[in-house]
């Protein structure tokens, strides 16, 4: 029974990946992330009997995932049918697909990508100035130091706002790529790459990979060929390897120290060891298992805190008069550590772990919420002009990967602030052109 259910949950995630790929939904990145971070590892753990938790826990996890996925798929399909009948979805292609292709910029769009490119450069320059001011040199840069500085500065941490500008503008790399502006694409890609290497923040590499993958996802093809399977598998492995490389930067104390003691085979062996041991990102699902084992018996669980926070995303917690709950990732971190006094360590147990912690077994019905939310995102993105659409697809691609690993609120906060920045730039260009 354990093997059968583990296999069915894997198939359910694969079906969702294929469905959302064929429909050209941006949320395909959510399911691709869950396939890599939960579906495949969970199945392999059962097959090879490499389980940190008992059979009952693994069976319950499989059942929860199957039910959540089924409710999501049914809701997503029905919403698409309703939207199609009402003809309230503006698309470039049929079936509400978001399509992007090679095209020449209208003159009014050129100013847009110039502003976004300047914004990306500004975020990188701000990072360099911030690093030199607080750490003396970029050679002293490492994730741990940035984390400590951020904790001490709080809302005065400039890097926090620089990161938001970075995520909002990094999608310009995709705009350049789709329009054959090779030099600008290379420059913007280098900026994203070095931003990630300096900060040591793993999610900052995502815009680059998503910009590279998107043209192979949002095209006119709906059937998946063997060639595409090989490509997406290879791309997934490269992304996973890169994420673990950035994790290794933290262990070594930054990019400079890593390169000072560079040993390709030694570093490669460490990354492979972390992968095979299920360490890092691939171990996040274990916290979901723990929540099942303790049956959500922890203060703050079963109260939908993540989703209340999402609804109040525009209001700072300190100004919400107690209506906005505290960061639920900290609560999940406390449960993971079995330390009720924890106030700093957070935990992101994949999306499945997050919905379970929020509403226990009733969390399967959050599949309806996610279907509605993802439909809104797709319709919102698909109504934009070419440049804005490309920027938003990269932005929400990043959001969905972050949400898939279980950092739901943080992911959508990046999306929320990114949309504000993108549309402020849009209005600025329109005002300039109207003069």
Total domains:
2
Approximate shape: globular
What is the rounded Rg? 21 Å
Oligomer: single chain
Quantity of strands, as a count: 0
Q: Main sheet, how many strands, which sense, barrel?
A: none
Which regions are unreliable across 5 or more consecutive residues at pLDDT < 50?
A: 85-103
Based on helices, strands and strand pairing, what is the structural class? Answer: mainly alpha
Name the helix and strand elements from N-terminus to C-terminus, one letter apiece. Answer: HHHHHHHHHHHHHHHHHHH
Distance between the termini: 69 Å
Give the averaged pLDDT, no decimals.
85
The helix fraction, in percent, is over 70%
What is the percentage of strand-forming residues?
under 5%
Number of helices: 19
Walk me through this protein's architecture.
The chain contains 19 helices and no strands. With 435 residues, the chain is an all-alpha fold. Helix 4 crosses helix 7 (172-178). The chain has 2 domains: 2-101 and 284-434, no CATH class; 107-280, no CATH class. This is Oligosaccharide repeat unit polymerase. The chain crosses the membrane at residues 6-21, 28-51, 57-79, 111-130, 161-178, 190-217, 229-249, 306-323, 355-374, 386-403, 409-429. It comes from Bhargavaea cecembensis DSE10. Keywords: Membrane, Transmembrane, Transmembrane helix.
């Amino acid at each position: 029974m354990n093997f059968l259910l583990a296999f069915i949950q894997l198939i359910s995630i694969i079906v969702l990946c294929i469905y959302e790929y064929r429909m050209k939904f941006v949320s395909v990145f959510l399911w691709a992330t869950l396939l890599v971070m939960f579906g495949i590892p969970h199945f392999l753990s059962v097959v090879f009997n490499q389980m940190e938790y008992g059979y009952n826990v693994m069976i319950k996890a499989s059942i929860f995932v199957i039910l959540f996925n089924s409710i999501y798929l049914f809701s997503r399909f029905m919403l698409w049918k309703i939207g199609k009948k009402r003809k309230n979805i503006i698309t470039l292609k049929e079936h509400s697909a978001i399509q992007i292709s090679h095209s020449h910029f209208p003159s009014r769009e050129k100013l847009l990508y110039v502003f976004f490119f300047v914004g990306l450069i500004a975020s990188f320059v701000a990072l360099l100035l911030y690093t030199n001011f607080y750490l003396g040199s970029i050679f002293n840069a490492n994730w741990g130091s940035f984390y400590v500085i951020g904790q001490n500065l709080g809302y005065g941490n400039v890097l926090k706002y620089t990161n938001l500008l970075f995520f909002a503008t990094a999608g310009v790399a995709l705009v350049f790529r789709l329009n054959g502006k090779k030099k600008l694409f290379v420059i913007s890609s280098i900026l994203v790459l070095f931003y990630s290497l300096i900060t040591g923040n793993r999610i900052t590499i995502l815009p680059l990979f998503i910009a590279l993958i998107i043209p192979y996802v949002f095209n006119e093809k709906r059937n998946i060929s063997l060639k595409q399977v090989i490509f997406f598998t290879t791309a997934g492995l490269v992304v996973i390897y890169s994420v673990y490389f950035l994790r290794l930067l933290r262990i070594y104390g930054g990019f400079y120290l890593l390169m000072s003691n560079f040993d390709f085979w030694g570093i490669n062996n460490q990354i492979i060891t972390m992968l095979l041991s299920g360490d890092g990102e691939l171990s996040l699902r274990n916290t979901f298992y723990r929540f099942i084992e303790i049956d959500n018996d922890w203060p703050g669980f079963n109260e939908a805190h993540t989703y209340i926070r999402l609804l109040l995303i525009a209001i700072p917690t300190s100004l919400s008069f107690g209506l906005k709950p505290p960061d639920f990732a900290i609560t999940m971190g406390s449960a993971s550590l079995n330390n009720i006094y924890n106030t700093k360590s957070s935990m992101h147990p994949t999306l499945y772990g997050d919905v379970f912690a929020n509403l226990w077994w009733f969390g399967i019905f959050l599949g309806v919420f996610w279907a509605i939310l993802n439909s809104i995102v797709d319709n919102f993105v698909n109504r934009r002009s070419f440049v804005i659409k490309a920027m938003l697809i990269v932005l929400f691609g990043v959001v969905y990967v972050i949400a898939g690993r279980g950092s739901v609120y943080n992911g959508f906060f990046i999306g929320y602030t990114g949309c504000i920045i993108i549309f402020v730039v849009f209005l600025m260009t329109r005002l300039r052109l109207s003069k």
